[in-house]
Amino acid sequence: MILVRNKEQMFKSKYTYLACFDKDGTLVVDSGYVHNLKDFQWHNNGLDLLKIAAQQKAAIVVITNQSGISKKIFTKKQSVLFAKLLIKRAKEESIHIKLIVICPHSQELNHMVCECRKPLPGMYLKIKSFSWAKDLKSVMIGNTETDKKFAINCGIEYLDVNKSESQKLLAEWGNS
What we know:
Elements: E1 2-5, E2 18-21, H1 44-55, E3 59-65, H2 76-92, E4 97-103, H3 107-110, H4 122-128, E5 138-142, H5 145-154, E6 157-160, H6 165-174
Parallel strand pairs: 2-3, 2-5, 3-4, 5-6
Antiparallel strand pairs: 1-4
Helix pairs in contact: 1-6
């Protein structure tokens, strides 16, 4: 498991809830193994949902499977650089991502059950082990069946980035 922290957000602890976002296909357009900095492109719905979460003072984290690292399609360093770019681009939109958690494993390649790979809850459990997150109510925003199963396995609500009602639900959810 790889943690990319936003050092500016490290000690901030006044949050209303924990908003967990998938990366590829949710926050950024998924062109397949997204890792090149030049390929960064916001997924419009994801950016809109990020803005709602930021306005509500949510602790925003990104939880992403990146099997391309194990498959040697790209390196851990490239993945971390892309994560840092995501934090930077979000900041340009006045959105502060607190943490990005990356699972670099490939179950097909490693022939193992990785506890940190979605849909298993390992990355979420790691986040909830931090004092700033442990008591926060959580929601997962994603775009795949894996993201939905991850939310179920974590016992948290799931919102689909591609469903029009997700913006309204997140706005209502953050105020409940």
